[in-house]
Amino acid sequence: MTLRHFQIFLHVCDEDGMTRAAEKMHISQPSVSQAIKELEEHYQVRLFERLGKRLFLTAAGQELMHYARHVISLTTQAEFALRGFSALSPLRIGATLSIGESVFIPLLSRLKEKLPQQPIFSRIHNTATLEQYLLQDELDIALVEGTITSEYLQEIPFMDDELLLVAAPGIAARLTLDDLATCDFIMREEGSGTRNLFEQVMHEQGITPHIVGVYNNSASIKQAVIAGLGITALSRQLVETEIRDGSLIELTVPNIRFKRNFRLVHHVNKYITPTLQLFIDLCQNDDDF
């Protein structure tokens, strides 16, 4: 087997088919088919099942996909390390929206202060998307608060957080569970850690929330709540300023708490470079948060 076999296999996985994989790699479809056939013959397993016009990974294919990504990742890291010590490879860091709008930028600034020559690539998405980026080796590490499902990712807690129920002034600050069941909610999109925790706690109390708005950024959610369009649950980090200035009020409900922690996540096989370790240490030891 060669790296080329693994590269073709991963493109077929990512593009959901041999035709799109061939187009992406600028090679012929028969070449892609031949590479997959050689892989299956080598390992004596079926890697894909064809149902209709679509290809689906088998259990063996899923397993090989993780190993293939690791092999390609190690190869890329070796190239960066040996290409020339004058050129630094970028540190690729992701964060969820809640973390991105609170502690992420200060952490990046501290890293830049300590390593001014270090290239940094950063991106903000919800937890589910960041998990896929980590598995596909498109990120070195991510800061998340939502649930990680892959066994191939390692999590390191670095900060406690809590969602607060907030509303525009003018309603009672103390609600009952029955009151909460009648409220209109403006919430984050599905796949976000904030949305998942909110729904989990509400369902534990037997409440199906009435969601009247779904926004993918906290600023719009706060504006909608301040305008009286509904109430929301957001990280304490994101609403402290509005609570202090009186544009939002914190709501309390007996037996309702939205506790969570922020976590650093990387692939279990990730080589921890000195630069990456420095960033991990900054996150764990920053007393300002």
Automatic annotation (TrEMBL):
<dbReference type="InterPro" id="IPR036390">
    <property type="entry name" value="WH_DNA-bd_sf"/>
</dbReference>
<keyword id="KW-0804">Transcription</keyword>
<dbReference type="Pfam" id="PF03466">
    <property type="entry name" value="LysR_substrate"/>
</dbReference>
<comment type="similarity">
    <text>Belongs to the LysR transcriptional regulatory family.</text>
</comment>
<keyword id="KW-0238">DNA-binding</keyword>
<dbReference type="GO" id="GO:0000976">
    <property type="term" value="F:transcription cis-regulatory region binding"/>
</dbReference>
<dbReference type="Pfam" id="PF00126">
    <property type="entry name" value="HTH_1"/>
</dbReference>
<dbReference type="InterPro" id="IPR036388">
    <property type="entry name" value="WH-like_DNA-bd_sf"/>
</dbReference>
<dbReference type="InterPro" id="IPR005119">
    <property type="entry name" value="LysR_subst-bd"/>
</dbReference>
<dbReference type="GO" id="GO:0003700">
    <property type="term" value="F:DNA-binding transcription factor activity"/>
</dbReference>
<keyword id="KW-0805">Transcription regulation</keyword>
<dbReference type="InterPro" id="IPR000847">
    <property type="entry name" value="LysR_HTH_N"/>
</dbReference>
<protein>
    <submittedName>
        <fullName>DNA-binding transcriptional regulator, LysR family</fullName>
    </submittedName>
</protein>
<feature type="domain" description="HTH lysR-type">
    <location>
        <begin position="1"/>
        <end position="58"/>
    </location>
</feature>
